[in-house]
Amino acid sequence: MFSEKLFPFLVFFLPFSFALNPTESIDLSVIRLLIPLFFLIWLLESLKDQKLLIDTRPRFVFLIFFVFFVSLSYFWAEDQERALRKLLFLFSILPIYFISFSYFEKKTILNDFLKALFWGNLIISILGLIQFFGQFLLGIDLMIKITEKYINPLFLGHNFAQAVSQYPSWLVHVGNFDLLRAFSIFPDPHLFSIFINISLPFILLLYFKTKKVSYLIGFIVMLFSSVLSFSRAGYLALISSFLVSLLVFKPINLLKKPLFFVSLLFIILFLVLTNNPLKKRLISSFDLSEGSVAGRIEMWQKGLEITALNPLGGIGLGNFPLFIDRSSTPRDPSYSHNLFLDFSSEAGVFASLFVILMIISPIFSYFTRKEDAVKKTLLFSFLILFIHSLFETPFYSVHVFPLILILLSLKEGKVIYPNEIDLKNKVDKICLF
User: Do 191 and 181 form a contact (C-beta atoms < 8 A)?
Assistant: First the structure.
């Protein structure tokens, strides 16, 4: 199928999607055009072959219920235009789930996906490292000017680029120094960190499958770039994932992979024993008086307050900023800094519940078949996503949300085809697990 040949390109292209400006007020990421186009191609091919695969696993059911409750919130949103903008974004990305689920039916092409994911992450990681170390050669001001004038308008669009410049999170104060964080061509370091971190388990899977040292080196480059984003949520997510790995793999199994173990041990010892900015940044996560930490706590309280006032339906998708400031514009970056509180406050507790179930479903799926390498990888990827989501809202990222849906659609174990369904419905087979 032609769509199968396009899919690895789509995965590779996710972090590089540039933006179009069809009007002065609209920024349109190319990925939001490519996904519906690829979906149409996939749908026509599937109908032609009389084989339309539908996911019936719990995770897909949770996704559908989440979309349903989020969509309902439009009807009681005070500012329905804001709600509609958010819904159009979600629905423009959602079709990638169907494409990727069908693609992963063939286990033999998993490597193509992993390689596309590897090269995309490696390039943005290298760009992030160039960005970080460039400040020591060219200066912070010049690096920021390059980002604002050339990079962001191309990849974010003119309007979004201006909004990001007004509310930047590019600098971090560590010790007595201001440092430019690594964020590559992403709008901020947090989304950059999430994208790389949820990909890292699959990069390791590629290395363990092929035993190629180049993939391990790439993994280290990506990890180093993510660390230099100075995302404390990223640090907590990676540390949590590492601690869980000790339970899943057991230390004795890690010793059987000496190169990987020595590299990991070196990184841990460096971070723990030296007085480095990364260690200071992580420790600052527990300083409740620190500016961004105090700000997050305040937004969590606002999210809880809205949820308590409107538990069933929320106040409408995209309307959280109005509760904070009546004069806010749709591009003001006011949100609760917690994925689950964001949806509980804007779309009600049921929307939030199904988001939680959707994310933890791949985690608990691991315990049904522990020997499955893909399930084991998904366990770590979605654990990282869950921890990140306690501090950020990655679903409205044109880079991260498609990747989440792709990973969510990944198929593990043996595919079983039940009885055929009437071809008049244009559905030939349904995949069950």
Answer: no
Average pLDDT for residues 401-414, to the nearest whole number?
85
* Region 205-219 average pLDDT: 91
The DSSP-derived string for 300-338 is: HHHHHHHHHHSTTT-S-TT-HHHHH-TT--TT-----S-
> What long-range pairs does 36-39 form, CB within 8 A, spacing at least 24?
36/92, 36/95, 38/3, 38/6, 38/7, 38/10, 38/95, 38/96, 38/99, 39/95, 39/96, 39/98, 39/99
Tokens 């190629």 sit on residue? 212
Geometric angle at alpha carbon 410, from 404 and 413, rounded to 5° = 150
**DSSP strand E in 113-267: where?**
171-174, 177-180
pTM: 0.88
Q: Which helix (H) or strand (E) holds 68?
A: helix 58-72
| 211 to 208, 214, 216, 217: CA distances (angstroms) | 5, 9, 8, 11
Nearest to 393 by CA among 381, 402, 385: 385
- Phi, psi (5° rounding) for residue 432? -120, 155
Q: For 100-117, how does the pLDDT look when each residue is reduced to its tens digit (9 = 90+)?
A: 998 887 766 788 899 999
**Beta partners for residue 432, in sequence order:** 416
Counting every residue written for the chain, the total comes to: 433
In whole angstroms, give the CA distance from residue 326 to residue 310: 18
CB atoms near residue 395 (< 10 Å): 20
What mean pLDDT is reported for the chain? 84
